[in-house]
Specification:
Helix content: 25-40%
Distance between the termini: 137 Å
Strand content: 25-35%
Subcellular location: Membrane
Keywords: Disulfide bond, Glycoprotein, Immunoglobulin domain, Membrane, Signal, Transmembrane, Transmembrane helix
Radius of gyration: 34 Å
Number of strands: 12
Number of domains: 2
Largest sheet: 6 strands, mixed
CATH class of the largest domain: Mainly Beta
Pfam families: V-set
Strand order of the largest sheet: 2-12-10-5-6-7
Protein name: Myelin protein zero-like protein 2
CATH architecture of the largest domain: Sandwich
Shape: elongated
CATH superfamily of the largest domain: Immunoglobulins
GO cellular component, one term: plasma membrane
Order of helices and strands: HEEEEEEEEEEEEH
CATH topology of the largest domain: Immunoglobulin-like
């Protein structure tokens, strides 16, 4: 009976040490990306690994889930070199724009279409590091770019500065005209005083 406990304890220790050694990678993406139909857009995906980076060991895969669908389509792969899609929705549209040695697993979508509306996922592996969660991007293709909150804020700040400059310019002009008018009045008064003396 004691041997069973010893074997069980040894197995649990081995399992615990194995679980402890597996580390998760950190994969970062933008959560929302909006693109104008027909333009090129870079889907940025960066990662951090606790193990040394090797061009041949790191694998990057991209998948796509269309709006209203539950299944994912794997369309891009990189390991040592890029393997862009040769068939399907993203043929001639997805190109590699990352650098795995710098922790960059980005791709660029060229000539985006309305059929690209959906969720893109970036998966990275650098054994023995594993990725706990995929970086997900909610992608929306529009006819025209809508104003973001930052754009609206920039317009508001720029407009406020413009109004302040306009008011300041008017104030300075009024002061200059008044001063010029006062100088002319003073000169006319001096001329009248001279005429009276004469």
């Amino acid at each position: 009976m004691n041997r069973v406990w010893i074997y069980l304890f040894s197995a649990l220790c081995a399992l615990a040490s194995g679980v402890y050694q597996v580390e998760a990678m950190e994969v970062l993406t933008s959560s929302d990306v909006e693109a104008v139909n027909g333009t090129n857009v870079r889907l940025k995906c960066t990662f951090k690994s606790t193990h040394p980076l090797s061009e041949d060991k790191i694998t990057v895969s991209w998948s796509f889930q269309s709006l209203g669908k539950t299944s994912e389509e794997w369309f891009f792969h990189h390991q040592g070199k890029a393997y862009p899609p040769t068939t399907g929705l993203f043929k001639d549209h997805a190109v590699w724009s990352g650098d795995v040695m710098k922790g960059d697993a980005s791709i660029t979508l060229q000539n985006v279409q309305f059929t690209f509306n959906g969720t893109f996922s970036c998966h990275v592996r650098n054994p023995p590091d594993i990725q706990s969660f995929a970086g997900k991007i909610s992608f929306k293709v529009v006819q025209k770019v809508s104003f973001s909150e930052i754009g609206i804020l920039a317009i508001a700040v720029g407009g406020s500065i413009g109004i302040i400059l306009l008011i300041l310019t008017i104030y300075v002009c009024v002061r200059l005209f008044r001063r010029k008018d006062n100088d002319m009045t003073f000169e006319m008064d001096e001329d009248r005083s001279k005429d009276r003396v004469l």
